[in-house]
C-alpha cells in the first residue's frame, strides 16, 4: 500500500501543482490564489487572480505564467511579485498550460461552457511564443485538460478527459504541433492533470475514479494510488523528483449546494515513488 502523506489540508478546488526551487506551487480556484508550500507544510500565498480556471507554468527564466481565464490573458509574475500581461489569448475560457524549455507556452481551452450544461463541443490548444504571439496549433480534442512535454522537448501529451485517452503531438521547430496520435487509451480512466517520469510513463490524476494512475505508452497500467476524494492533478518533484504530489478534493458537481467542491476538502498529498520525474511540468 502506498503511503500517502497529507502535506496541506483545508483548501478548496486545488489544481495545477508545479515544483520549483524547493517548494510546490499550486492553485486554489475557490479562493483565486496561487500558493507555495514547502516540504514541512509551511504555505504562502504568492499571487491572487480572479480567475477560474487558474493554472500556472514556469518559464525557463524563472518567471511564473498564470492563466487569467476570465480575462483571456496570460499573466507573467516576476520575482518581485508584479503581474504583467505576457500574451493576449483573445477570449475567455482557458484551462491548462505547460511551457517547454524554449519558453513556448501551450494553453488549452474547452469548446463549450462546462458549468452551464452547454452541449459538449471539441476544444483546442493554442501556442503563445516568447514574443507574445498566439496561434491555434491543435483542435478536435473533446475535453483538453492536463498537458506535459517530454524530457527531450519533442512531444506534447494532452489529457482528453471525455475521450478517456492521452493524445500526443510532435513539437515542430517553430512550436507548431503535428503527428497527432493516441498515446494511450485509458479505458474508464478520466485524465485531468498529468506529468511524465524518466521511464517515459505518464501519471494522471482522475476525479471520478478517485485515484492517480501511472501508465506506459499504449495504456498498460504500471501503478495505481487510490484516494478518498477526486484527484485533480499531479506532478513529480522534491529534491530528487521522486515525490509525487497530488492535489485532491471532494467533487460535488456543479449542482452541489456549496459549489463543485465543498469548502475545506482540498488537500495537497505526497507519496514517494521509484521513478523520478522528467520533462515539464
UniProtKB/TrEMBL annotation:
Belongs to the SMP-30/CGR1 family. SUPFAM superfamilies: Calcium-dependent phosphotriesterase. It holds the Pfam family SGL. Its cofactor is Zn(2+). Gene3D superfamilies: TolB, C-terminal domain. It comes from the Bacteria. A divalent metal cation binds at residues 15, 145, 192. Substrate binds at residues 95, 113. The active site is at residue 192. Binds 1 divalent metal cation per subunit. It comes from Actinomadura rubteroloni. Coiled coil: none annotated. This is Virginiamycin B lyase. Keywords: Hydrolase, Lyase, Metal-binding, Zinc. Signal peptide: none annotated. Residues 15-249 form the SMP-30/Gluconolactonase/LRE-like region domain. One of its GO terms (molecular function) is metal ion binding.
